[in-house]
Each structure stands twice: as C-alpha cells, then as structure tokens.
C-alpha cells in the first residue's frame, strides 16, 4: 500500500543515512537520484584518468556514523578503514612562514609557541579550553536535539552555559581575546568557512569546530566517496532500492498530506513518506511543486560557494600534507569581497587537499591527486562568472601557492574546473551555495529548517537542514528525518487501529519494524 512506501529524493549523505535506517526497520524504501552515482556533494571527479574526491575532504565526529550503523546492525570498522590524522593541517603565509596544527593540543601549542611566541601558545591553550566548553554545552541540547530553540537550549544547558557558547560575539572578535598575531586569527577564523560563513559575521559559537577536529580527524582509505558507497551498500543489503539517473519533478499531495512523486519522465510513484535530501531552497523555490513550496520556510542568506580545480599534477617545492591552507594577506578584504561585494576575492586563501599523502608527507611517485579550492560568492544563478574572471582567479590562486614555495605542473586535460554556476547546475536553486543558509548572527543556527515540514509525510535531510553542513551533520539530519518519519508512522498506525463505527478495527499497512 502507498502509505507503507518511503521515497527518498537525493542520495547525499543525509538521504543515504535516512534510507539505511528506514530500510533496517523493514520499510519499503526507494531512493531517487538524478546523478549517475550516489554521494550528492560527496562526489568524485575524473581528472587525468583518475577518480578524485571533489567534495568534502575532512571526516570528523565518527561517532555519528558509528551510531547510525549500530542502529542498522552494522559496525563502521567492518566497512571502512579509518586512520587518525596526527597532523590536522599544514598552513603557510609565505615560503618562510609555515605552521602545522596537530591532533595533540600540546604539540600544536608547542608549534604555535615556536611560530608566534609563548603568549600565543598560552592563548591557544585557552582557546582550546573555550572551544571544548562550547562543544560540551551544545552537544546534547543542540547537535543531538531534533528541534532546538534558544529557549530549549537555555533551559537544557542553563543560562550560564548559554552565555558560554558566545552566541552574541562574532568569531573574529572572540579570537582577538586569544590571539594578537593576525595570522593566528586568520587561521582559526577559517573554521567559519567550514559552514560557508564569514568569521566577521558568524557567531563565536563556531569555535567549537576546533574541539571537533582535536577529537579526531580521520583519513578514509579509498577516499571520502567510499563513505557514500558504504551507506548505499548497507541500505541495499537491507532492502532499499536505488534508481540513479532519475529526476523528480514534483512532490505530490492529496488531502493535505504527501502521496508520492512525479518523475521528470511523467511516471507517478506512490509513497506515504517522502524524505527530501535536497537543499531547502529548491523546495522553497518551487522546483518540486507548489505543495512542497509551501511546506518549508523562506530561505535565508546563502552560504559560500567555491571555485575548485580537481587535478592530477606534479607537486614540488612545498612539503604537502593531506590538508594544506595557503593564506592571502587580508582576511577582512577577502570576506568583504565574498559577502559584501559578491565577487571573487582579489586576495584569496587557497585550500589544497593532497589525497595521496598522509601524516608522513611522503611525495607520491609521479603525478598526484589534488583538490584546490578558493571560496566564492553564491551567485551562480545571478552572476555567472565568465572565463576571464575564472582565469584571473586561477592566476591569483596559483601565484599564492608559488609564493609559498609550491610549484604545480599539470596539463589542461588533467584539470577539471568547477565554478559557482557549475555548482548551481548540480544543486539547483542554491546559486552554488554549498552549506545551506549562512550562520550569520546568533539566531541563524536556529532558523535552519528541521526534519519535519508543514506538509505531513514530507521530511528534510541534508546540509541545509538542522543541524547543518558537513558530513557528520548531514548524516545526523538523515537520522532525525528517519526518526521523525518512524514516529509519525507509528502514530498513524495507532490511529488506524482505533475502533471504527460498528466495533470494527482497521489496521494500517504492515510496516515491518514499526509493528
């Protein structure tokens, strides 16, 4: 029966996590993905004949997937080979200015002391302690809560803890209390970009990301896309079906609740539960029909997009680690370009993920797989950058790498460039924004849509939904969506089991694990 069927739109991490959990409960689950492969933003690009991770590159908070797999009767370590990173990232400002952050707080403090002096090392230890307190205050009442509000957070954590999370100060201002050296403010301010935000606008709460990284950054054998394939394989083993290369055009509703989907080729799919692993702006923009449009709040300010160069290249002159950040000269100008002036930065910061390297920084023989990224404004639908703008951005970006000592040698056929307009085509109605709404101001984190929508039977998952962007957060959103769907199905089942006129009872369709 239709009410027993679950349709998942999108095979990103959020949709995959929801599909796995619902299939493990015995529900009839089908995932519809318009791309030819699962993963969503966790995608691979082929450059120079090699598959290269072209989406998220940092895996943290492994406990989220540990818990999701345990609920589905599996163990993460049986399906992925994970190695803890000893060096979190290597940072450079010039050929003579380099700083490694380590998984060990004390090792990082020692490195910072050598780099910027004893006061900076003390400031770093204080910063880490503050980040840990923020995380402790938020894990249960916010990260693990399906529908947090400022009131619920203050009530659960206490007003003192609420003030501890520093929601009213900007990240940049708060960092000034710990670091006089502007390079260190620049380094730790970059954590705001993990959520697609500016450190000059984002709340100091985002300093908790430092604690998340210190709790463990994991290198995934086979690449990050292996996570998506693992979730698909586990969901399929529990009965979920995947239809790849299939686009959904409408979410159908009858009598004020979900009744299925219409595919782009006209096929109608009946389903009583739909989980949309799409950006909430796509629903709000009407890309899935009028019923879905009215089911979600109006979108807020967009987060950052990016320009990326996925390449196979010879790298010389700079000892790359897995994660490397090369800083431009002026963060305020960079983020002003990105958010206020809505243009590619004149002095960008460049992130380089060297996917064939680990903690030992050993150089691969021959060309290696690299992802180079600069932040960009989310204007792929309003102001597509022309070739000259992208070429100028590339010139500035690779000139910075050269000033820091890194020389890259490649060929045009071994480089794939992705721009905000390309990300807009991949993820429509976003302008190329990669992290949902921007977390600017103290209220923004509470304004992300939660799993439940205004349309009964329709749920949201993915980086634009609570609790936010990033692999573990997207997986958590899928878990929230699955839990809310299961609770609503159980409630509906109880309703249908109540006595009907004449003393008869009506059972809902069998839903496996909900029985």
Walkthrough of the structure:
This is Phytoene desaturase. One of its GO terms (biological process) is carotenoid biosynthetic process. InterPro entries: Amino_oxidase, carotdesatCrtD, Carotenoid/retinoid_OxRdtase, FAD/NAD-bd_sf, Phytoene_DH_bac_CS. It holds the Pfam family Amino_oxidase. Belongs to the carotenoid/retinoid oxidoreductase family. This protein has 515 residues and is of the alpha+beta class. Helix content is 34%, strand content 21%. It contains 16 helices and 21 strands. It has helices at 13-24, 62-71, 105-116, 118-143, 150-157, 159-164, 171-176, 182-189, 208-214, 225-237, 280-284, 290-293, 331-340, 387-403, 420-426, 471-496; strands at 5-9, 28-33, 44-47, 50-53, 59-60, 82-84, 87-94, 97-102, 217-220, 241-244, 248-254, 257-263, 268-270, 273-276, 305-316, 323-326, 350-354, 368-376, 407-409, 415-418, 458-460. Strands 7, 8, 15, 16, 17, 18, 19 and 20 form an 8-stranded mixed sheet that branches. A 5-stranded parallel sheet has the order 10-2-1-14-21, with helices on one face. Strand 3 and strand 4 (50-53) form a beta hairpin. Helix 2 packs parallel to helix 16, helix 3 runs antiparallel to helix 4 and helix 4 (118-143) packs across helix 5 (150-157). The longest helix is centred in the N-terminal third of the chain and has 26 residues, at 118-143. Residues 497-515 have low confidence and may be disordered.
């Amino acid at each position: 029966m239709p009410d027993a069927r679950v349709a998942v739109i999108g095979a990103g991490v959020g949709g995959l996590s929801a599909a796995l959990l619902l299939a493990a409960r015995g529900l009839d689950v089908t995932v519809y993905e318009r791309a030819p492969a699962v993963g969503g933003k966790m995608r691979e690009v082929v450059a120079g004949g090699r598959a290269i991770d072209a989406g998220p590159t940092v895996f943290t908070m492994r406990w989220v997937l540990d818990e999701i797999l345990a609920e589905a009767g599996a163990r993460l370590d049986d399906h992925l080979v994970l190695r803890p990173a000893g060096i979190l990232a290597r940072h450079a400002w010039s050929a003579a200015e380099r700083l490694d952050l380590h998984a060990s707080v004390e090792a990082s403090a020692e490195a910072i002391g050598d780099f910027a002096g004893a006061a900076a090392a003390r400031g770093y230890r204080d910063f880490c302690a503050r980040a840990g307190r923020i995380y402790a205050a938020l894990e249960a009442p916010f990260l693990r809560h399906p529908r947090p509000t400022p009131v619920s957070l203050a009530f659960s954590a206490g007003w003192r803890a609420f003030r501890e999370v520093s929601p009213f100060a900007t990240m940049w201002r708060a960092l000034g209390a710990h670091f006089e050296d502007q390079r260190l403010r620049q380094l730790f301010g970059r954590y705001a970009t993990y959520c697609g935000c500016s450190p000059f606008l984002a709340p100091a709460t985002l300093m908790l990301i430092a604690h998340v990284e210190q709790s463990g950054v994991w290198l995934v054998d086979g690449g990050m896309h292996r996570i998506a394939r693992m979730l698909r394989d586990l969901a399929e083993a529990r009965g979920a079906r995947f239809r790849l290369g299939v686009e959904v055009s409408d979410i159908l509703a009858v009598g004020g609740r979900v009744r299925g989907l219409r595919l782009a080729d006209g096929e109608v799919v009946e389903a009583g539960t739909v989980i949309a692993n799409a950006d909430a702006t796509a629903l709000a923009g009407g890309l899935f029909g009028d019923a879905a449009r009215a089911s979600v709040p109006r979108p807020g300010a967009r987060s950052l997009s990016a320009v990326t160069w996925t390449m196979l290249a010879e790298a010389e002159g700079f000892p790359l680690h897995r994660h490397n950040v090369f800083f431009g000269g002026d963060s305020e100008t960079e983020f002003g370009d990105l958010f206020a002036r809505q243009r590619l930065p004149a002095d960008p910061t460049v992130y380089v993920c060297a996917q064939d390297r680990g903690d030992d920084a050993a150089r691969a023989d021959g060309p290696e797989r690299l992802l180079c990224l600069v932040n960009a404004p989310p204007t792929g639908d309003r102001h597509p950058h022309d070739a000259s703008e992208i070429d100028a951005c590339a010139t500035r970006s690779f000139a910075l790498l050269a000033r820091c000592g890194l020389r890259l040698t490649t060929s045009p056929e071994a480089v794939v460039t992705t721009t905000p307009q390309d990300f807009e085509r991949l993820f429509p109605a976003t302008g190329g924004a990669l992290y949902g709404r921007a977390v600017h101001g103290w209220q923004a984190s509470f304004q992300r849509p939660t799993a439940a929508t205004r349309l009964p039977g329709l749920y949201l998952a993915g980086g634009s939904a609570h609790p936010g962007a990033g692999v573990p957060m997207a997986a958590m959103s899928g878990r929230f969506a699955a839990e809310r769907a299961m609770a609503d199905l159980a409630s509906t089942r109880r309703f249908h089991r109540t006595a009907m006129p004449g003393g008869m009872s009506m059972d809902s369709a069998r839903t496996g694990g909900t029985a």
